[in-house]
Amino acid sequence: MPQVPPKQSKRIVSVQVCRGLAALFVVLAHLHGIEIKYCTTNYLLFFEHGALGVDLFFVISGIVIASVTTGKFGDPRNAGIFLYHRLARIFPVFWIYTTFTLIARRYNPLGTGANPGQPVNLLSSYLLIPTHLPMLLLQGWTLSYELYFYFATFLFLMLVPQRATVWLFALWGVAVVALKLHIGLSPYPVVQLLISPSVLEFLCGYVIFYIYCRSRLHRAAGILFLLAALLWLAAILAYSFHVHSGQVAWITDAPWPRVLLYGLFADLFLLGTIELERTDLIHYFPFLKSIGDWSYSIYLSHVLVLELIARLAYHVIPYHHDDFIFIIALIGLPSTVFAGYLSYAYLERPLITHLYKSGPKLGS
Predict the structure, then answer these.
(1) 130 contacts 193 by C-beta, under 8 angstroms
(2) Which is nearest to 39 in space by CA: 327, 335, 321?
(3) Closest to 288 measured CA to CA, from 14, 5, 50
(4) According to a count of CB atoms within 10 Å of the terminal CB, is the N or C end of the chain lower?
(5) Where are the alpha helices (DSSP H) in the chain?
(6) Tens digit of each residue's pLDDT (9 = 90 or more) over 264-293
(7) Environment class of residue 189 by beta-carbon count within 10 Å: exposed (0-12), middle (13-18) or buried (19+)?
(8) What is the C-alpha to C-alpha distance for residues 91 and 115, in angstroms, rounded to an integer?
(9) 282 with 276: CB under 8 angstroms?
(10) Rounded distance between C-alpha atoms, residue 307 and residue 297, angstroms
(11) Number of domains the chain contains
């Protein structure tokens, strides 16, 4: 998911590291999709739980947006500049990769993640408008949620004074829960987005940032939160394999279980890593932070990269080896990271730097 440039955020290194981990989790989840498409094996079923990377991204978005908007509510100018920065941050690079996917879908020289015979809505694919049809860039649906968070925050920045924000965000959460329980499954994709329980993950990010700024927890809190997150994830995995044969649809296709299971893991994990960083009980290798910098490019490009590698390997290896998918994984994982680095260094960062320098600056 998109990140905020350093000059605009109170950079918490652990959040950046978790952003990189979230991107890698999603890559692992899609590796299993590659296995299903090209192999008769099902070795990587466990990696389907990498879908929780999306939930990590949503909580991180709440933390990051809270960090760049604190003290700036009730000012229409700040609201407009915030929205400009966020749209400039998310759309240009996304449009580039969507166009790559469109070209690959049209000419399909080596195959893409989207089924060339499956209809898509071009307008929604480029503008991230939810519809019943899939988007060209398969992971684009998560960015529709990001836009929702941005536009809601924009309205709050413009209309609501700082002292009322806590109550308004709480009201937003209560309204989402009440409407979802009342409406249930709506036939309208936009309504489904507006009342999605995933909004609660974003709001939890705000709460985590509030705890970070206003409270000083015990030095052992980070360890306890992180341990609780890992135990919770272990319980999810054990139950999934015991009851659901390792399948994850019972979580990913059901909004409430997803928030309660993956969302709670994301909350505990981020609380733990942030508190460990604040108490100097953990120090991260610079490379881990760098992966966080590259995470948006990794997220946008990885399906194309994995498909390219899988299709090439499929033609090079004349018959199906049982270890075919492991060859793809060994090549694909570092390749997605490297492609993300190249995209960030030579496409994303120069483009964003230009847009931010030429655009207005967020007030103080």
Answers:
(1) yes
(2) 321
(3) 14
(4) C
(5) 13-38, 52-69, 76-107, 122-127, 140-159, 165-183, 189-194, 198-214, 221-243, 249-252, 255-258, 264-278, 286-293, 295-316, 324-343, 349-358
(6) 999 999 999 999 998 888 888 889 999 999
(7) middle
(8) 24
(9) yes
(10) 16
(11) 1
Compute the mean pLDDT over every residue in the chain, rounded to the nearest whole number.
89
Q: Is residue 364 part of a domain?
A: no
What angle, rounded to 10 degrees, do the helices at 13-38 and 295-316 form? 20
In angstroms, rounded to a whole number, what is the distance separating the alpha carbons of residues 5 and 332? 28
CA–chain centroid gap for 163, Å, is: 29
DSSP structural state of residue 220:
T
Report the alpha-carbon distance of residue 313 to residue 277 in Å, rounded. Answer: 41
pLDDT average, residue stretch 218-233: 94
Q: What are the backbone angles phi and psi of residue 177, rounded to the nearest 5°?
A: -60, -45
For residue 98, give its domain range: 6-358
Residues 300 and 294: their CA atoms lie apart, in Å, by: 10
Does 289 reside within a domain?
yes
Contact in structure between 303 and 33 (CB atoms under 8 Å): no
Task: Say how far apart CA 171 and CA 275 lie, in whole Å.
Answer: 28
* First vs last C-alpha separation in the chain: 25
- DSSP code, position 253: T
* Residue count (the chain): 364
Residue of 263, 153, 256 whose CA lies nearest to 195: 256
Q: Which residues contact 18 (CB under 8 A, 6 or more apart)?
A: 56, 60, 269, 270, 273, 292
- Residue 315: what pLDDT? 77
> Can you tell me which residue has the tokens 């509030």?
210
What per-residue confidence (pLDDT) applies to 355?
92
Q: 316 Cβ partners below 8 Å, 6+ apart?
A: none
Is 12 part of a structural domain of the chain?
yes
Question: 116 pLDDT band (50/70/90 cuts)?
Answer: low
Rounded Cα–Cα distance for residues 203 and 145 (Å): 12
Torsion sign (Cα): 29, 35, 37, 40: negative
Residue 363 lies in a domain: no
Distant-in-sequence, close-in-space partners of 142: CB < 8 Å, separation ≥ 6: 1, 54, 57, 58
